What we know:
By secondary structure, this protein is α/β, with parallel strands linked by helices. The protein has helices spanning 29-40, 53-65, 80-94, 118-146, 167-187, 212-220, 230-241, and strands spanning 20-23, 44-49, 69-74, 99-102, 149-154, 192-199, 252-255. The protein has seven helices and seven strands; from the N terminus they run βαβαβαβαβαβααβ.
Amino acid sequence: MPSTQxxxxxxxxxxxxxRVALITGGSRGIGAAIAKLFAQHGxxxxxxxxxxEDAAKEVVEVINSAGGKAMKxxxxxxxxxxxxxxxxxxxEKFGAIDTLVxxxxxxxxxxxxxxxxxxxxxxxxxxEIKSAFYxxxxxxxxxxxxKNGCIIAISSITSRHADPxxxxxxTAKSAIDGFVKSLATELGPQxxxxxxxxxxxxxxxxxxxxxxxxxxxxxxxTPLRRNAQxxxxxGGVLLLAxxxxxxxxxxxxxxxxxxxML
Length: 262
């Protein structure tokens, strides 16, 4: 049975006590699951949204009603000035951000390569990298001051196991993987860890239009015999964000039920 863990589920200890986290794209799906799990484990959470204000408000209410700390903050993470303002708002309310989750996802055209235009391709690549570049540049200075920090980017198993018609997505997520390794190398001496999570097929809005037969087929080929829930991905992010993972950096953690293995 899939995990249906909620904010009030019992846990032994809080892995993120006194931490301040910012989650981009945190209003729905995987981002919302990460926000709830982080708050459950003691973190104060800034929940970024672009246009889904009602959804972000709902996540904040769930967290705060359970005794956690959360705030919603609007920003297009492809816009540098909006990102700078977002980070300042979270820091003013909760203190310096020490944990950043890069979850905002850019949409893309699903089509064979020869049916893509450069504009289609460029839109995905540019948006994906900006969504990581600007939040990192805004948050890293305070991490450097603290000589401590954790950045986790949501990649995809398609960055290493390409699927037909997903060339823009595969290329963009491969760039994120390279970005993660570069930052992990550069920032490690200052105590900042940078890692990537690579989800498999996850039951969120982007796959809601896929035929049930396709989803069932993916589940049948997965050793754990199901598709991922957002909470499954959130668990992997919590693992990398927690103190027990303090010696893990530059990693690419697949959370896919074994559908792809390195």
